[in-house]
Fold these 3 entries.
Entry 1:
Amino acid sequence: MTIAERAAPSRTRPSLWLWFVLGGAAVTALGVAVPVLRPFAFLAMELAAVGAVAVGIRRYRPRRMVPWWCILAGLTVPLVANVVWIVLEAAGLRSPYPGPVDTFYVLMYPLLFLGMLGLPERAGRDSWRAGTLETGIFACAGAVLYWTVLVDPVLTARDTQLTPAASFALAYPLMDLLIICGAVRLAVIGSRRAAWSALVVLAGLALAAGDTTFFIHVVDGGDGRLSLLNASLCWLVGAVLVGAAALHPAMAVARRPAGERRTHPRWMFATYLALVLIVPAATTVSLLTAVRSGVADTPDVVVPMAATVVTLVLLVTRLTQIASLAESRARALDRRGAALERALARQESLQDELSHQALHDPLTGLPNRLLLRQRVEAALTGPVPATLIMLDLDGFKDINDRFGHPTGDALIAVIAERLQGGLRAGDTLARLGGDEFAVLLEDVCGLDAVTIGEKLVRSVRLPVEVGDHRLHTTASVGLRTLDSRLSTSEMLRDVDLALYAAKAAGKDRVVSFDERLRADQLHRTRTVDGLRAAIDRADFAVHYQPLVDLRDEQTVSVEALVRWTPSDGPPIPPDQFISVAEDSGLIVPLGAWVLRRACLDAVAWHHRYGVRLSVNVSVRQLREPDFEQVVREALEASGLPAHALTLEITESVLVADGGGQAITHLTALRRIGVKVAVDDFGTGYSSLAYLQHLPIDSIKIDKAFVPVEGPEGAQQVSLIRAIIDLARSLALGTVVEGVETADQARLLHNLGCQLGQGYHFSRPITADAVERLLAADRALAY
């Protein structure tokens, strides 16, 4: 059982301390009613009080044990004295008064006082000093009042001098003042008024009443058994109350004080005023009475005067302490006030900083998306027109991948400074994240806004020096005039559509929002939904366009081209859904399906006619970590040899990848025999560096270089001859796209091109048509 459980009062029966009080009253009443049993009844109750304190200490284990041991010793001493007195009386021996037995009674008071002195837990130096001073004040004041009100009148009325017996008897009530003052100190220093401390105070008062009664009994010459009986009852009540206090549950749950107990100022003022008025008044009245009666002697003067002086000195000391404490607290409050002001200032500064961080980009210090939205919302309801611009850097991911994120961050910081320098003071430039910026132009719209957008694009084109790197980048810009009929989210959506249109139109340009863009976006969204459903249903077909040897126009390879064939509508050409599939990421599952289907169709053509297969691969597919495994599984499932497969990639794949995931995949696939061709060569980022070092086997020259009639034809012949010579020097095969006439085929053959592809030879055809075409070619060959 825990202390808290032991201390918890029962809800069905009285507590142990109450039973003890009731039992003590019953035994005491029995002793009063039966004089023969009186000594034994009183002795039994004193013994019970000692036992109660011992049980309380063991049961509740109070935090401060030593004071309770002192109280236990204080109750044990008179118990021993009473036992000795009873034994002497039974033996016919009468103990003199005062005598050795009375010494035991005297020892009780210092022991009880020491116990009460240690009961309150100190809550600080000031609280301890206050309790000690107030104890002294009440003790001296009590001594004055006790002498002037009780002792001196009793002696005067009986015309009795203080005999040794009376002086010894007077020591008891005077020492009771210590007990009462100990109780006062307990109330002053203690953290709260507890029931057990109230019982201790009542016990002290009972002891004082008994000792006063005994003093009067002694002064009367020892007569009056009623007075002695009353004194014994008071002593017994005091012992019972101490025992009850030890058994009270509150003794176990007393709390540690958190600070000095604060007395109400009005009560304190009234108490001290009463002491200042009553104590000197009582002393004065006592002295005047003694002088007028003509019986004034030394004790009549010295005792009250000394006690009064000490009381006033202690009272002044206490008031000085209160003033000092008040001044100290005032200084502490001033310090706390100043500290609070500093804390509030720091908090306000921190709140401003946090607010700034919440609304600004940490890299550039520009407003972020949240602050931009707030300002766009304000501009939508403002009186002047405004324009929202969205700007995105072209190819920023490539710079991050090639040179690292620190270089990319440095580029962003420089671009932000340039953009800010091209704007007016009232315009808002925000960084939305990554390489995306936004500008809110106040009181600007139409062509003026377009002019500012083009100015921003030109500023981005300028090279940027970052460390040892000279970086070049461009920007695509979308522009939208604010419309108060629309929400902020709709404004951001529209300007984002304009930005997307700028990128789709070739980047490095400004595109203003048009309602058609929203319709196009809706169409793209529907296309994505349709593509997703079509992939689940496999609503696609693969057509093949032959690649022929220009020497004899025999088909040596076929290029797989996907066609969307909805079950509830006409076929959809690739130019209407391939770009949507790439942007949405659906090109990954679609491309994997085309690869598997084409390998299954081509394996028979390869075994019968030696025909190879070419399959287009997008940037998005090559960025997938499992692309190599997808190709291997398609080859294994179909049985097509690896050397019979050519993967066609665009130049943008190699440039955008920067030597990363795509190069890793292509290098690994070339080790097992898969060939790699660069499609649409000459229209993108043509570079001798990647032709020389990257894993490619051939190039497909874009149809834009195929010679046509007229002055341009001669220039195209020169260009295509240069490309063919370059490929030959690098040991790369060549294929020309877009061959539409026999003259073009002969010319390209004469220039040294190996393979050709175009409508002159065949349009894209189905797998069945490929089978018939190949069979006819071989029949003609033989």
Entry 2:
Amino acid sequence: MRARIHRLLHAGLYTVTLLIHGPLSAQEAQPKPVAIDVDLAKDKGPMKPIWAWFGYDEPNYTYMKDGKKLLTEISKLSKVPVNVRAHSLLVTGDGTAALKWGSTNAYTEDKKGNPIYDWTIVDKIFDTYIERGMKPIAQIGFMPEALSTKPQPYRHNWSPGDKYNDIYTGWAYPPKDYKKWSELVYQWVTHSVQRYGKQEVESWYWELWNEPNIGYWKGTPEEYIKLYDYTADAVKRALPTAKVGGPEVTGPAWEVSEKFMRAFLDHVVSGTNYVTGKTGSPLDFITFHAKGDPKVVNGAVQMNMGKQLRDIDKGFEIVASYPTLKQLPIIIGESDPEGCAACSEDFHPQNAYRNGTMYSSYTAASFARKYDLAEARGVNLVGAVTWAFEFEDQPWFRGFRDLATNGVDKPVLNVFRMFGMMEGNRVAVSNGLAYDYAKVRDESVRKGADINALASKNAQTATVMVWNYHDDNVPAPAAPVSVTVKGVPATKVLVEHYRIDRQFSNSYEAWKRMGSPKSPTAEQVAELEKAGQLQLLGSPEWIPVKNSQAALNFTLPRQGVSLLKLTWQ
């Protein structure tokens, strides 16, 4: 019935067009479909769940009402454990949550300077993850007030209209005593093993700090390297099989970042260890960040996916230049369209992409290119952290970079639900498409739309994610798309077509249709929650397979995303 209504609507729109503009030319009336070929016989290796990684600044949101709800939803969308990264796990304070702030009070000292360890809040955070089958990316930072070389001022109070640099206070400084810092790390890892078990903690990633090449670290690069040696030594003393890594620099394509990253990797390979005096340091995985750079151009948001991909590619290039490190797991610790999740749309109009489907289509298109970039550089990408979570008790759809607002899922979360259905191995996608990973990296998407696909298969299922993305968030006609899936080992397939666009899987548009209520009623909230789930475009249907090929034709709106799931017996 829904499909029939859509056909009638399309027919109605065509009739209105005739009445207003007169007859269309043949070319205008029947635009040539974008042809996408998916070849199930061309295997590209495992479909690594690089998307199943999330993070956020405010660790105390983890166990609050909407935080727990969202973590449950994230855990359910994936058939593999989701990895979660949060800042400020060692920051001094009472655990009060605020924008770009969090604290656990894990370390304080008595009047004589003796350490006092309190893992109550840290445990509360990690318990929330473990209960949902999630894996912590245990970020070792930031500096407790009692250990900071410049402890005052320590607690900052930041809001979206404030200067970003105001957040870098006493928690960002090196320790006044590296041995006390090392003992803190040792005690944390030891406590974790006692609480969760050796096997569980072995599955975590222990990383040092965040973006030490900018304000998050008020020491020198050499002081960070020294801190890393003391940290890695402590982790390995507590649990020799634990995984430890870094350096979490931001923007490797930036010269200062590349210099920092190379200095760190040079030390790991051939430097003199500050703790042992031996050559090199333990390194089990490598981390860096990559961000885009949206702007407002002629009154509309213009994204810059190319910048993010260039950061990623440069990071891969740097890692690949170290023969002994090239095959280490790489985690892009933050991988996003821009840099500040808590910078809301009302103060930062370039972030107006976040509530609607532009964030969805950007996510689909950019993640597909991360696979291609890793393959081209021959490196081992295991995860790309989406730095987006939720912000408790904020106005509805304020325009934060988040996955949900007041407990209601936003369209972007449905892309990850789509990814969660893509299993098995990646397969080849081709047929004269306007963009490949290299062109998006070098030029971004400024000419025609990027209409492309990512596909996977297992024994009895194939999935094809198709997006219609453009850097410019301006209206454009929907595009006809023709997907041909080759190598299907059956005579018919069941097709389920999931969609994210203005009508489907979109709580934001539903909220606007309600009149954008500032305080939705319980009935409205229930309706928004339903609209926030991933939805089918129409009823599942069986289609014939001819010569091992299945043909699927549909229209895809600008900034829309489709997932085609084909199942056979």
Entry 3:
Amino acid sequence: MKIGNVHNAKKVLAQLLLLAVPTVALVAYLLWHLNLSYQILQNDWQKQALYFAGGIAGAIILYSYRFRFITTAALLFVVYYYAYRSIGNVSVGEFDAFFASVQFLIFAILFSAGWICGFGFSRSRYFTVFWAVFLLAVQIVTASKTHTITASAIISSFLPTLAYAVYIIYTAELIRNMNPSERHFGWFVFKRLAGFGLVLAALFFLLLQTFNKNFQAVEKEWGQGQGKYDQNRSNQESMTKENRDGSVGNKDQTQLTGSLNKGKRLVFVAKLDNYFEDGKTPNPLYFTAYYYTRFDTLTQTFETDTKMPDNDLFKPDPSKIPIYFAKTDSTVIKNAHATKARKVVTADIYKTLLGPSEYVAPSTAFFCQPLPVEASYKDQYKSAYRAKMWVSDLNSAYFIYNPAGNQMLEQFQEQRFKTLRQVTDFTGIPESFKQYYTFMPKDPEYDRIKTLAQEITKDAPTPLDKMLAIRDYFLSKDEFDQPLFKYTNNPGVPGMPSANKLNYFLFENRKGYCAYYAGASLFMLRAMGIPSRIAAGFLTVDRSSKNPGWYWFYEDQAHAWVQIFFPGYGWIDFDTTIPDLEAHESEQPDGTPPLNMQQAYLVADGHITSVDTTTKKLTMSVEKLLFHDQNYESTRPDTLSIDGAVAQVSADSGAVPFSVLRKGMHITAASFAEALKDMTANPQESMADVLKRVPKPAPADEIKIIEEEATQQPHKNMFENIQPVNWLKVLATVLIVAAILIVLVFAMPWLIWQVIHARAKGNKATPQSAYHKYRAALYYLNQLGYSRHQKGPGDYARDTDARFGTAFYTFSNVYQKLKYSKQPLTASEEAVVAQFYTPFIQSVKKQVPLRKRTAAFLNIYNTIHYFTQPK
């Protein structure tokens, strides 16, 4: 007996080409993303896509005949069962059998998913809705594995799935309602798909334009600090961020990822006035940007915390401080709780790639004074500032991996250890302070770290000795006399994305970069009740033998290390990251440091009141004055005329021409003129008295433009309300956008009706009016469930009149005359056209309850049927 078919060959071909092929393409795209996150998939997405393709194609072809789903699915399950049982007999070895079974399960799941999808496309009218929702959920899970939070990333992640969802619902209904016997079948399908594509493209364009600001807000809030440098390298973390102007800065958080991206560009140059006791040997210090005191276990990210107790991080914006004027914060010294073995140290920082608003300095910094860059160095350095720090005598960039064979450094190291061994407990510090800096997540995974810490420090009596025991553990060797731990920028990720990466580093692969070593040290120290935190900034390397005390900092020196709090001595730096034996160090600095900075005798800060770019002269209202290092301020600004003929004009981006100066600009003008050298400052004078004594116009050598907040991108520092990436919020945002799209889709029948209905209103009897009324009547009846199907216009109109008591048949005959005849309408026929529409709609409304009409206008399938049925 021949098996009857449900669909003929044309419909099957249409389902394969118009439904199966786009579905396989989207599933392949999703599988490619999932393979990047799930190691168990073995990065074999092409073969996995073929599994799914085989299932969907086989099901569409099979179910084009009258086969039952339950019977065929049961048969497929039996085949799976016996195939799985036979794996153990075919595979050799326990590992091979396990691997083969995992691969078979992946095949079975994907083939079955394709099989169910093919059955749904072939037999179920409403399957496409559930399928679209399912794929959107999968895409949300897939997108949550990325840390590139940008507007373009969010749009590119969800736009294909959303577009596919709308496409598949429309096309499935188009194929269901098509007439395979119609002539020019291919042209019929092409016209409707092309029209649909144009409408869909326009719809998404409008949506993207409408919600573009919302996506950019998500990028700004959750993607802050994510670097743009070498972004094409996926699944990578960077210790630096790239700002919108191309400059570089440290990030206020760092996430444990599978690989670290390092650049080689020069970031800044620094002169550090810190030496050992001989006064000749430089003692380099790490330059700090942020402290990470909080760990997000969900995203496995170390973060800054606005609620950090006794905040001792000084974070000014040098670009907002006039040159030569200083900003000081003495509270950070108080919050450092350090009274022993401390001194004030000065550093001059010259920026090349470091952002204008970025501030880095050894801890604990409390002073910032922007400095001018001499004309001969302006091409090399964009801006500069002087920092002052309350520095511990026990700190050094040599930390605990000091160069072997240098007797003075070894003696220094032993002396600092001897001093710190005097601290045996932490009884003298506030309990709230201790609880905060020893906090650990309560989880079995972190209990493993605690157990390891107790094991490797069991013979260490003091906090310092426990720190050294952790160092020795990272430097230890295995049973084959090979290093137990290795430094690498590509440590890989655990098999499951949600797995604890620190545990994976400590107990499995033992490979990582600085964030892994610092994070592991942090939790081992905290597990033993030792207050600790992570510092992030730049590793200092003493390369220069020509200019002692000068240091060059490159992108690959961005670093993270651990700090321990010792009562009386404050926070002391320790670096447990083992040396990178395969590192290729940045090129040796071959430039000359900016030496012999000139002394400014007069510095005026204020706003331009007038400017002549031809003569290069301007006047300014002076709000603050620095004269021979004496500060003057006044509540009422005074006027000063400036001669800028020889002045170097600069902004945060570097040197600029004098012609950019405009009235109202905030500037700082500095003068090194010899005419001012012999003048003296009198603290008893007012600012107005000083300005009366200076030459008119006063010669200026430096003019610095101080950009206002409104003209610069806002700089987000740790004192603002920083929030980590919250994937629940991301999910909520995506769901809200998806909900809006779904509402728009289901509101489409009503919106279309409003357009058609508006065109049909009126009492005109023109052919165009008759066309709109006839079209609106057909759409209204179709949407309520009374479509024409294969009926002729007259039969359909008579049935409508019999059902609703309307005069549709009479109007239809007049409309057909207008459409196919060139004869003009009679007066009575014109009256029929003019008086038909409003009574018709009212009569239908009376016969159809409001509840039914409401439900009907939410039925998108009736709308699709109206526009896809052959006319």
